[in-house]
């Protein structure tokens, strides 16, 4: 116990729904606070998004303050601007065909852009779509479309259904899917999820903040990896939005 108490503390943050509203920019007040917090603490980022999107959401300054940024659920890792690891895995045509079938079968017929988004070592699938640049320019409508799908998903559990069907078909082939963000599903090799980053924190205590720690969520693998190492000083905070993260960090800062 004494050795654990003497370890330095790593603050690990998901991005969408934890530091920012989903797919949008960080709140200005929180951004200023987070910069100061990062100056005085060991901050790490772990997200399913790519680097370009994360920098856009957090801003270049806050992004640069992270000790490491684990993009694409840890399949594309950066220290500042330096790439230190990259996984070149891609989905197969069989997986692509399955996703296209799920898109055709969905009862949610609104479509706003790219549905299969191949990232480094990870693929994100969205029935709604990620939105073209022209769709994003009409931010109000884009947000309404996303909220409409979120309400649909709450009623139907469509994303959970797709993940269960996908995993029954592909997990034996070493590929798995997880509910991610507010409208998407992440697909990756078994073990190539957020839980893979745990190996970098053997000498640190961990406070992990994420909004998708429930069974099947893309923060769950890291939560489970933290629990498995049985360090009583580790903590996992499942938040319901960036506002709760902000509140928790302010309370920690004040104490």
Detailed description of the structure:
The structure is a single chain. The protein has 255 residues and is an alpha/beta fold.
Which shape, going by the Cα principal axes? globular
What is the count of β-strands? 11
What is the percentage of strand-forming residues? Answer: 15-25%
Low-pLDDT segments, ≥5 res: none
State the end-to-end CA separation.
22 Å
Structural class per helix/strand content? alpha/beta
Strand order of the largest sheet: 5-4-3-2-1-10-11
Instruction: Please trace the helix and strand order, writing H or E for each element.
Output: HEHEHHEEEHEEHHHEEEHEH
Helix % is 40-55%
Major sheet: 7 strands, mixed
Taking all Cα atoms into account, the compactness measure Rg is 18 Å
Q: Return the average pLDDT rounded to an integer.
A: 93
């Amino acid at each position: 116990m004494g050795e654990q108490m003497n370890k330095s503390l790593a603050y690990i943050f998901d991005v969408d729904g934890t530091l920012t509203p989903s797919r949008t920019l960080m709140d200005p007040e929180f951004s200023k606070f987070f910069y100061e917090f990062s100056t005085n603490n060991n901050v790490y980022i772990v997200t399913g998004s790519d680097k370009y999107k994360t920098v856009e959401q957090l801003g270049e300054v806050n992004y640069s303050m992270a000790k490491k940024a684990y993009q694409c659920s840890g399949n594309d890792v950066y220290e500042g601007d330096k790439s230190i690891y990259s996984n070149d895995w891609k989905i197969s045509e069989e997986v692509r065909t399955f996703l296209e079938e799920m898109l055709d079968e969905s009862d949610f017929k609104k479509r706003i852009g790219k549905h299969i988004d191949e990232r480094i070592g990870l693929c994100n699938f969205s029935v709604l779509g990620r939105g073209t640049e022209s769709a994003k320019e009409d931010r109000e409508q884009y947000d309404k479309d996303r909220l409409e799908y979120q309400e649909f998903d709450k009623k139907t559990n469509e994303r959970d259904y797709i993940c269960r069907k996908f995993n029954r078909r592909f997990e034996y082939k070493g590929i798995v899917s997880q509910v991610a963000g507010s409208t998407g599903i992440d697909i990756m090799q078994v073990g190539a999820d957020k839980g893979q980053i745990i190996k970098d924190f053997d000498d640190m205590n961990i406070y992990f903040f994420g909004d998708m720690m429930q069974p099947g969520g893309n923060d769950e693998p890291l939560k489970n990896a933290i629990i498995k190492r049985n360090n009583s000083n580790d903590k996992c905070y499942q938040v319901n939005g960036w506002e709760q993260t902000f509140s928790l960090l302010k309370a920690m800062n004040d104490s």
